[in-house]
């Protein structure tokens, strides 16, 4: 059953592994919100990577033509602050791609970016749906950059999950509402 977004669900987090259906679920929630939708694509188009272009095109074909699309690879907090308004649903796909675009930040710089995003989310008035990848369920990456990405993404999704309601896990094509099934950590 598809749960409509209500004023109580101002922030929504949809997380899950690759190819699980998380983007499709987030798109369904946005479509059923009854509001105008702004889709924020965090990826950077690489004209030399045809496989990546095909992935982007698949996402584009699924979206209704009336949705406005913004490409925001880095300035997510500032963009959300500018466009968030009542009666608008913003879908951000995805946090992992956004993080990858900022991975060169040192720990202090990344912490400031993260805190800025959380502050912005606490001040926005529209509904925002975030899509985030789950990367920490497997083997510890063999390289420092892989471990840094995995750890930062885990911290990022935990911070957003702490203020989002509902939080969904989509895996193997099934949607679980973690806000109903689980208990948040302090």
TrEMBL record:
Q: Which CDD domains match?
A: CobU
Family statement drawn from the similarity comment of this UniProt entry: Belongs to the CobU/CobP family.
Query: Any coiled-coil ranges, and where?
Result: none
Top-rank EC class of the record's enzyme = transferase
User: Entry's Pfam families?
Assistant: CobU
Q: Where is the active site?
A: 59
Q: Which organism is it from?
A: Lyngbya aestuarii BL J
Q: What are the EC numbers? A: 2.7.1.156, 2.7.7.62
> By its UniProt entry, which InterPro entries does this protein fall under?
CobU/CobP, P-loop_NTPase
Q: Which UniProt keywords apply?
A: ATP-binding, Cobalamin biosynthesis, GTP-binding, Kinase, Nucleotide-binding, Transferase
Gene Ontology process terms (BP): cobalamin biosynthetic process
Protein name, per record: Adenosylcobinamide kinase
Function noted in UniProt: Catalyzes ATP-dependent phosphorylation of adenosylcobinamide and addition of GMP to adenosylcobinamide phosphate.
Chain residues that bind GTP: 16-23, 41-43, 71, 93
Q: Reaction catalysed?
A: adenosylcob(III)inamide + GTP = adenosylcob(III)inamide phosphate + GDP + H(+); adenosylcob(III)inamide + ATP = adenosylcob(III)inamide phosphate + ADP + H(+); adenosylcob(III)inamide phosphate + GTP + H(+) = adenosylcob(III)inamide-GDP + diphosphate
Tell me the pathway: Cofactor biosynthesis; adenosylcobalamin biosynthesis; adenosylcobalamin from cob(II)yrinate a,c-diamide: step 5/7; Cofactor biosynthesis; adenosylcobalamin biosynthesis; adenosylcobalamin from cob(II)yrinate a,c-diamide: step 6/7
Molecular function GO terms recorded: adenosylcobinamide kinase activity; ATP binding; cobinamide phosphate guanylyltransferase activity; GTP binding
